Amino acid sequence: MKKIILKSNLILGFQYLFGAIIPIVLMPFVLKEIGIKDFGIYSIFISWATMGSIFILYVFQLTGPIALEKIKARNLKLDLTKEIFLAKLIIFIIWLIFLPFLLLITPYELDQLQNILLILILIPLSSLLNSSWFLQYHQKFLTLCKLSFIGALVPSIIILIIKLNGYKNDLAIISTFYIYPFIVGLGSFINSAQILSMKNIFLFLKINKKNIYGAIHKLKNNFSLFFSQMIALGYGVSGPIFIGYLTGPEEAGKFSILEKIFTPIISASLLTHTAAFPKLIELWTNDKKKYLHILLFVSKIYLLIILIIVSIYFFMQNKINIFVFGNLENKYLFEAFLLWIFVAFSGPLLTSYLTISSQNIKVMQMNIFVLLLVLTISSMLTIKYGALGWILGLTIAHVPILVLFAFTMLKLNLKIKS
């Protein structure tokens, strides 16, 4: 089983590599072109758009594979996927209604309203279309890898054209923020629809009343898990928003440039779990001992990857800081992020375990606990230390989750042995 997971892991590794190319290689260029203040303002709206995206996903990336595992007939799988899409569409419409209010309450001058609207609409639209959970369940990792390659290639070509022509075009530069998720979202939607409807995508688009009622039913059934995820948004992706309001867009920009670099690193480090997740669902029902063994294997792989990243930074820290920021003034911020990713894995793995074991209420309780800690600690530290304070507060707030994850795995191990 480990060989299968590692094979899927390798393919997913290429997928996340392409996804990481954009922030690691392109974001420093974007920062130099538009400046730290404008980058910070755009980042604040990207955070809002990301919150909208997670709002639209509505935890279906977790519950979708679990529901598919219980269904064997193709027509029922088609209905399930339609209902999940319709549920996400309802949330997307709510998001569009919310946008004018969001623009009204912003304290910043919206000189580039067109760019901001594209960010606020296209990133959430990508989540509406995104069906990666379905492709991952069916082990279509190579398809996702190809989509990621195309998604990374297009913005890279745009930046290359801008550099070769030597002109500044904000619309083209900002498009690099949303082209990748849009291509992956649209491509995964088309591929999933073709698989389910046997190459006839119009069969997937055929909706009936049963599908609409099913979509509403799924929104109600998954609300507790969704609510806990919305609580997690209060600290998970809202950093630039809080930092921007508390200390200004420049500090938000500093935080965002590193967040966009480290987020795909965390995702890539957890890709073993992504590859193993469909199998973990099955093992929880059939073989809990093997389930625990695979989950601990995933944790070890994550920590090994983080150790390699820390080692690389230790030997190349000056060059890395100069490449990203053009100076060495933000070294401590970089090091704080490295500390953060060391503890960050425990949250997703613990959430995965609690979801598979049908303990959604505990997920909500955990997220409320972390949110209260973050709002208390990070807010105070941010006012004094800016972006550095926010990331230190996040790290401190997640230490109890790391301890809880270790305790939960130990308790599960003892239960299995007895």
Structure description:
This protein has 418 residues and is mainly alpha-helical. The chain has one domain (2-417). It is built from 20 helices and no strands. It has helices at 2-34, 36-57, 60-69, 74-105, 113-129, 132-137, 141-165, 170-174, 179-196, 201-204, 209-221, 223-236, 239-247, 249-269, 271-286, 288-325, 331-344, 346-356, 360-385, 387-417. Helix 3 (60-69) packs antiparallel against helix 4. The mean pLDDT is 78.
Characterize the overall form: globular
| Helix content class | over 70%
Mean pLDDT: 78
Q: SSE string, helix = H, strand = E? A: HHHHHHHHHHHHHHHHHHHH
Number of strands: 0
Taken as a percent bin, the fraction of beta residues is: under 5%
Tell me the domain tally: 1
- Helix-strand makeup class: mainly alpha
Please give the count of helices.
20
Largest sheet: none
List low-pLDDT spans.
none
N- and C-termini, Cα separation: 25 Å
Please give the radius of gyration in angstroms: 21 Å
Summarize the structure.
This protein is an all-alpha fold and 418 residues long. 87% of the residues lie in helices and 0% in strands.
For this entry, give a set of tags.
0% strand; 20 helices; 418 residues; single chain; mainly alpha
Topology, element by element:
Blueprint: H1 2-34, H2 36-57, H3 60-69, H4 74-105, H5 113-129, H6 132-137, H7 141-165, H8 170-174, H9 179-196, H10 201-204, H11 209-221, H12 223-236, H13 239-247, H14 249-269, H15 271-286, H16 288-325, H17 331-344, H18 346-356, H19 360-385, H20 387-417
